[in-house]
Amino acid sequence: MESAEALRSLSDLPLGGRLLVRSRVDWRTAVVSKITEEGVTLSVASPKGRNYRLRRTAEHAVGVANGLHYLISETGENWNENFAVYDSRW
User: Fold this and answer.
1) Which of 17, 41, 52, 78 is such that its CA lies 20 to 30 A from the CA of 34?
2) How far apart are CA 1 and CA 24, in angstroms?
């Protein structure tokens, strides 16, 4: 696998690669579940225990902070300021 600094776009992440994604209200964990010519499909974890899918272009920018990959969002918010709180029972 490539070094963290070499990753610049979503297509650089491998299948099964984990990253953080900005939802409407908070940041959530996601996994690269499918890579096609049209784009990349992400499986995103919901705080209530469900998953949903997002499709993004392969050229979507990916940032790296402290070894964690995250999709660059339009909001200027840092991912650790508003991270989703998951159900602690699991």
Assistant:
1) 78
2) 31
The arithmetic mean of pLDDT across residues 20-36, rounded, is: 89
Distance from C-alpha of 66 to C-alpha of 4, rounded to nearest angstrom: 10
Strand partners, 20: 29, 70
From CA 4, how far away is CA 7, in angstroms rounded?
A: 6
Contact 64, 4 (CB under 8 A): yes
- Neighbouring CB atoms inside 10 A of 3's CB total 7
DSSP label at residue 16: T
The helix/strand/coil state of 11 is helix
How far is the C-alpha of 68 from the C-alpha of 80, rounded, in Å?
Answer: 11
CA-nearest of 74, 75, 71 to 20 is 71
